[in-house]
Design brief:
Helices cover about 35% and strands about 20% of the residues. The protein has ten helices and 14 strands. Helix 9 runs parallel beside helix 10. By secondary structure, the protein is α/β, with parallel strands linked by helices. The chain folds into two domains: about 60 residues, 2-Layer Sandwich (Alpha-Beta Plaits), CATH 3.30.70; about 250 residues, Alpha-Beta Barrel (TIM Barrel), CATH 3.20.20. The structure holds phosphoenolpyruvate (PEP) and manganese (II) ion. The site of manganese (II) ion has 5 residues, from loops.
C-alpha cells in the first residue's frame, strides 16, 4: 500500500502513520517529495486481521492506494520520479549517461592502473574490476581477493574514479566495502536472496545484474529484496539472458531497457560486453542501449585483451573504447542526453 499524505501534513502526522504501519506489522518506507510525502507500507498481508486501508482515517492522510505490482518499493507506482544513485561524486540516473569501464578481473598492478588511466582519459566515470570472480569452473582464476581490492583502491587514488567490484560471499562485505564505492551483485547471484538481503542492510550503492534466466519481474523482485532491507541505492544492469542462440554468448535483451524504465524508478544500465560476448558486437549494442534509454553502460576494457585471464574475447582495447565513447556521445545527444 502507498499512503499519500496531504501536502500540508505535519511531521507529527507523518510519524503517526509510520508508527501505525509498524504496529500493524509492516515496514514503512518514507519518501519526502517536493510537494508531499508518500509512505510505502510493505510486508506480508496474509493472516493479518488489520487492513492497511484503515490508515486513511489518520490525520494528514489524503489517500491509501494499493501497489498492484508484486514489487513495491521498486515500482514507479510507489515512486514516479527517477531515482538518482550517487557513487562517489558520480550521479547515476540523471540526464548524464554514466560509463563504468575496466577489466573483467583485476590481474596485477600494471594491468589495472594502465587500464584505469586509459578508460578515464576516454571519458569513463567509474572503474570496474573483479577481485572475487564467479567462474564457471573451480579450476580457473578465482580473482586476487583482498590484494585485488587494494589495487583497485590504488587505481582510484591515481585516477579519481570511484570503483565498483563484485561481492560473492556475505563474509567479504566488510573488506569489499572498505576498498570500493559500489558493490556488484553478478548474474549468478541475482536470486541469491541471502546475499541480496545482506547488501540491503549496508549503505553502499549496489549494481544488480540481471540473472541469465530471470524474467524482468523476477529481476525487479531481486531489487525489492535489497530495497526492502533499507538500502535505496540500487542500479539495475541488463547483461543478456540465455536463449537458444549460440552465435553470441548471451542474448542481450534490448527490450528490457524501455520496459524497466517504464516499470521502475531505479537507474538502468546496459552491459553489452557480457550481453554479446564478442568485442566486435559491443559498440553497436552499446549505442543501441543508449538509444533505447539506458542510463549508463558497463564495458569491459583491458589494456591487452589478448593476455586477459578472463573475458578477453569480449574486452575492448583502450583505442576501441575511446572510439565507442566518441560514437556514444553522438547517440546520447540525438536522444537528448549527454555523456
Ligand atoms: C562481470 O561483470 O565480470 C560478470 C561476471 O558479469 P555477470 O555477472 O553479468 O556474468
Ligand atoms: Mn567479465
Amino acid at each position: 500500500m502507498i499512503v499519500v499524505m496531504k501536502s500540508e501534513a505535519t511531521d507529527e502526522q507523518i510519524e503517526k502513520v509510520v508508527s501505525t504501519i509498524k504496529e500493524l506489522g509492516y515496514k514503512a518506507h518514507v519518501i519526502k517529495g517536493v510537494l508531499r510525502t508518500v509512505i510505502g507500507a510493505v510486508g506480508d498481508e496474509r493472516g493479518k486481521p488489520h487492513h492497511l486501508e484503515s490508515l486513511s482515517i489518520l490525520e494528514g492522510v489524503e489517500k491509501v492506494v494499493p501497489i498492484l505490482q508484486p514489487y513495491k518499493l521498486a515500482s514507479r507506482e510507489f515512486k514516479p520520479d527517477n531515482t538518482i544513485v550517487k557513487v562517489g561524486n558520480v550521479e547515476i540516473g540523471g540526464n548524464k549517461i554514466v560509463v563504468m569501464a575496466g577489466p573483467c578481473s583485476v590481474e596485477n598492478e600494471e594491468q589495472i592502473i594502465e587500464t584505469a588511466i586509459a578508460v578515464k582519459n576516454a571519458g569513463a566515470s567509474i572503474l570496474r574490476g573483479g577481485a572475487y570472480k564467479p567462474r564457471t569452473s573451480p579450476y580457473t582464476f578465482q580473482g586476487l581477493g583482498e590484494e585485488g581490492l587494494k589495487l583497485l583502491a590504488k587505481a582510484r587514488q591515481i585516477t579519481g574514479l570511484p570503483v565498483v567490484t563484485e561481492i560473492l560471499d556475505p563474509h567479504d562485505l566488510d573488506v569489499i566495502a572498505e576498498y570500493s564505492d559500489m558493490l556488484q551483485i553478478g548474474a549468478r547471484n541475482a536470486q541469491n536472496y541471502a546475499l541480496l538481503k545482506h547488501v540491503g542492510r549496508c549503505n553502499k550503492p549496489v549494481l544488480l545484474k540481471r540473472g541469465m534466466a530471470t524474467t524482468i519481474t523476477e529481476f525487479l523482485m531481486a531489487a525489492e529484496y535489497i530495497l526492502s532491507e533499507g538500502n535505496p541505492n540500487v542500479v539495475l544492469c541488463e547483461r543478456g539472458i540465455r536463449t537458444f542462440e549460440t552465435a553470441t554468448r548471451n542474448t542481450f535483451d534490448l527490450n528490457a531497457i524501455p520496459v524497466l524504465k517504464e516499470k521502475t524508478h531505479l537507474p538502468v544500465l546496459a552491459d553489452p560486453s557480457h550481453g554479446t560476448g564478442y568485442w566486435q558486437y559491443v559498440t553497436p549494442m552499446a549505442l543501441a542501449a543508449i538509444a533505447a534509454g539506458a542510463d549508463g553502460l558497463l564495458i569491459e576494457v583491458h589494456y591487452k585483451p589478448e593476455i586477459a585471464v578472463s573475458d578477453g574475447g569480449q574486452s575492448l582495447k583502450p583505442s576501441k573504447f575511446a572510439a565507442l565513447m566518441e560514437k556514444a556521445r553522438a547517440v546520447a545527444k540525438a536522444v537528448g542526453r549527454e555523456i
